[in-house]
Amino acid sequence: MRTGLCGEVGLDDVGARVRLCGWVARRREHGEHLAFVDLRDRSGIVQCVVDTSVDLRSEYVVCVSGVVRRRPEGMENPNLETGEVEIGDCTVEVLSVAEPPPFLVEDRADVEEAVRLRHRYVDLRRPRMQANLRLRATVVSAIRRAMERQGFCEIETPLLWSPTPEGAREFAVPSRLHPGTFYVLPQSPQIAKQLLMVGGVDRYYQIARCLRDEDLRADRQFEFTQLDMEASFVTQDDVLGFVSEAVLDAAEAATGSRPPAIEQMSWAEALDRYGTDKPDLRIETAIVDLGEVFASSEVRALAAPAVKGLRVRGGSGTSRAALDALVERAKALGARGLAWFRVNEREGGGGSSLDSPLARVLSEEEREGLLRATGAAPGDLVLVVADEHRTACTVLGQLRVELAAKPVGEGPHRYVWVVQFPLFEAIGADGHPAAAHHPFTMPHPDDLDRIETDPLSVRSQAYDLVLNGWELGSGSVRIHRADVQARVFKALGVSDEDAESRFGFLMNAFRYGAPPHAGFAFGIDRLVAVLAGEESIREVVAFPKTQSGSDPLTGAPKPLPVSSLAELGIRIAGR
RNA sequence: GGACCUGUGGUGCAGCUCGGAGUGCACGCCGGCCUGUCAAGCCGGAGGUCGCGGGUUCAAAUCCCGUCAGGUCCGCCA
Question: Whole-angstrom Cα distance, residue A365 to residue A345?
Answer without folding.
Answer: 18
